[in-house]
Design goal:
Elements (H helix, E strand, L loop, with lengths): L1 H35 L8 H13 L2 H24 L7 H23 L1
Helix pairs in contact: 3-4
GO molecular function, one term: phospholipid transporter activity
Pfam families: MlaE
Protein name: Membrane protein
């Protein structure tokens, strides 16, 4: 009985290792195909530049405006909280650090995705 249980564990460990290697292999093939430009739809460099422009540059205005409004809300709420402790002068630093470090990547990713 004990040997069967041990063999089941070894079999499960081997299956997990094979699955991990298979996923790594598929990921590696995907990377090679992406780098060599073997896309299924006949990808080209001009199409890549056009997509980067439309996703990146054309979304910049939306990202800046949304960041501005989020910063205003953070400043308004942060001022009322910091005023209780007498440190109103730290509102600008708090908003800048919060937007750049915490909310900047999240908001940018959400706006790019949406």
């Amino acid at each position: 009985m004990r040997n069967k249980s041990l063999m089941d564990r070894v079999r499960l460990l081997g299956r997990s290792a094979i699955d991990i290697v298979a996923v790594l292999g598929r990921s590696g093939l995907f990377l090679v195909h992406a780098l060599l430009g073997r896309g299924g739809a006949g990808s080209s460099f001009q199409l890549l530049v056009k997509q980067l422009y439309s996703v990146g540059v054309m979304s910049l205005v939306i990202i800046v405006v949304s960041g501005m409004f989020i910063g205003m809300v953070l400043a308004l709420q942060g001022f009322s909280i910091l005023a209780k402790y007498g440190s109103e002068q730290a509102v600008g630093q708090m908003v800048a650090l919060t937007l750049l470090r915490e909310l900047g990547p999240v908001v940018t990713a959400l706006l790019f995705a949406g």
